[in-house]
Design a protein that fits this description.
It comes from Catellatospora methionotrophica. This protein has about 260 residues and is an alpha+beta fold. The protein has 7 helices and 10 strands.
């Protein structure tokens, strides 16, 4: 049976143009085809074309210039290597996020700090017994004053109590450095990444346009001996992010590094 795309036609057209922009076939500064050309190409009305372009404008992919047309914006996806923010920052430096990670001026807004009963998946990741709480730090991460990531960071209470993890302030030098200085250096982690529709809270905090989905990362960080020291839930707008992974394959007989 032939596949039928049940999405509204303007969303289908926006998806086709978005794919061309993200692949580089429509490069930054490229003028899109005229409304009439797009009407002919996709066999739709001018209203449908305008609704498709409105979606792309809301997402930041294109910009209209009066009397000239619609052009692809210089809005490269944020290629983030998950490993980049894990090693502790060097002494005297800020956290790796506030240093911007090479993408702009980073800022962290601390939303909440409290002891909670964590979600079941977090309790499992941290190896907590039933009914045992965890320390939560909820944050919104900004680049150049644009919200780009929500973070719910959970820590075992016996590790967090009496430290800056339990205080309602940003952790100087970043959390990986604090953990390392406390004798719990992050040595490995596991990411589980999925995509889904944004909740109302996520759409509001990330200022997401339209029906943009989110990428959800469930991360478990471990220290020496395999002890879990952090379980994080990270949510990003899927229209802005690419996750970049790099693996070095060791010669035969050796171990690989990732």
């Amino acid at each position: 049976m032939a596949y039928r795309d049940a999405r509204p036609r303007h969303h289908q057209i926006a998806a086709e143009l978005r794919a061309l922009i993200m692949s580089g076939e429509l490069a930054t500064g490229t003028r899109l085809e005229s409304t009439q050309q797009l009407m002919t190409r996709f066999a739709v009305t001018g209203q449908t074309v305008q609704r498709a372009l409105a979606v792309l404008k809301d997402e930041g992919f294109v910009v209209g210039r009066a009397g000239l047309g619609v052009f692809v914006r210089d809005l490269s996806p944020l290629a983030i290597e998950p490993a980049a923010y894990m090693p502790p920052a060097r002494p005297g430096a800020g956290s790796r996020w506030t240093d911007g990670g090479g993408h702009g001026r980073g800022r962290i807004h601390l939303v909440d700090v409290r002891e909670v009963q964590p979600p079941a998946s977090v309790a499992v990741a941290l190896g907590l017994a039933d009914g045992v709480g965890a320390q939560l730090r909820q944050q919104v991460l900004f680049l150049d004053d644009e919200p780009v990531e929500l973070a719910w960071l959970y820590f075992p209470l016996d590790l967090a109590r009496g430290t800056a993890l339990a205080e309602r302030r940003l952790v100087r030098g970043g959390i990986p450095r604090l953990l390392a200085e406390a004798g719990h250096p992050p040595v490995d982690w596991t990411d589980r990444i999925s995509a889904r529709s944004a909740t109302t809270e996520e759409a509001r905090l990330l200022e997401l346009p339209g029906e943009v989905p989110v990428l959800r990362t469930a991360r478990t960080v471990r220290t020496d001996g395999g002890r879990p020291i952090e379980a994080s839930v990270l949510v990003k707008g899927a229209h802005r992010y690419e996750l970049s992974y790099h693996q070095v394959v060791a010669p035969a007989g050796g171990a690989s590094q990732q």
